[in-house]
Amino acid sequence: MKSALASLIKNLVLIGVLVLSTLNFFYVWFNWQDLLIIQSVAGIAYIFTGCYEYLNAGYKASLPVQRYAYFTNSYMMFKTLKIAVFFGFALLLYLSHNRVKYLYPICLIIAFTESVITFLKYKNAYCFVNIYANYLLLAQDKLTKIFAGDILLVEFRHNIFYLVKKNNKSFAIKLEHIANKEQFVGSFTEWLNRNNVFVSQESKVKIKALNSSLDLKD
Fold first, then answer.
1. Are residues 117 and 189 in the same domain?
2. Residue 215 confidence (pLDDT)
3. Domain contains 130
4. Which helix (H) or strand (E) holds 207?
């Protein structure tokens, strides 16, 4: 509930300052200094509520169940690109020679907030895979539950677990991005066996070989 309220406030703050800045472009209610102060105060509120939204969700990552940090290259690349784009827009707006440059603080606010949130999520391992009794929880920008009973089959190829659901949707868990992969593979193998999840014979052989190789490393 608190996270939902923080998200609502964050979005209202952003929409409010964007609308105010846009209308001020046409009607010039505030001079540049006053508008900058308003945008700065709104920016602090946006950053605070944005961080609170993610930090408050930390209870999901603090549950007394082993979690495995999971940051894929595509996720990190998307976040980096998003931050770079908003910083780039801010620079272009600032260098423009008309009043449209007054909108550049909004882009800076978004870019800075995304930077802080991404750092906090990485530091606290808020992107993760959790193994529960009868389902997996994948957390990145959203939470995804994958129940064992919904899985049609599991394939293991090139160090990637492919989970194919009965509705033909599939999820991939790449071991190269999993923290504590030795422990994860062991726990995940036990989870598959305990829930009688169908694994192809070829994949069973590969998973068994992987567990053996990881045991030798230990």
1. no
2. 61
3. no
4. helix 201-217
Q: Which of 53, 88, 123 is the last residue of a domain?
A: 123
Could you give phi then psi for residue 175, rounded to 5 degrees? -65, -30
Question: How distant, in Å, are the alpha carbons of 157, 162, 164, 171, 187 from that of 150?
Answer: 21, 14, 9, 12, 19
On whether both 38 and 92 belong to a single domain, the answer is yes
Tell me which of 69, 91, 123 is where a domain ends.
Answer: 123
Question: CA dist 113 to 45, 46, 59, 106, 183, Å?
Answer: 11, 8, 21, 11, 34
Identify the CA nearest to 181 among candidates 170, 193, 173: 173
For residue 130, which amino acid is it? N
Give the helix ranges, DSSP H, for 167-200: 181-194
Task: Indicate the helix (H) or strand (E) that contains 139.
Answer: strand 135-139
Q: Which two tokens stand for residue 192?
A: 């598959």
Same domain as 80, residue 53: yes
Cα atoms found within 13 Å of the Cα of residue 124, Cβ hemisphere only: 19
> Identity (one letter) of the amino acid at 129?
V
Q: 36-77: per-residue pLDDT in tens?
A: 677 777 777 777 777 776 666 555 555 546 678 889 888 889
Digit-coded pLDDT (tens) for 164-184: 998 888 889 999 998 888 888
**Are 200 and 153 in contact, with CB atoms under 8 Å apart?**
yes
Residue 28 inside a domain? The answer is yes
Task: Judge contact between 110 and 14, C-beta under 8 A.
Answer: yes
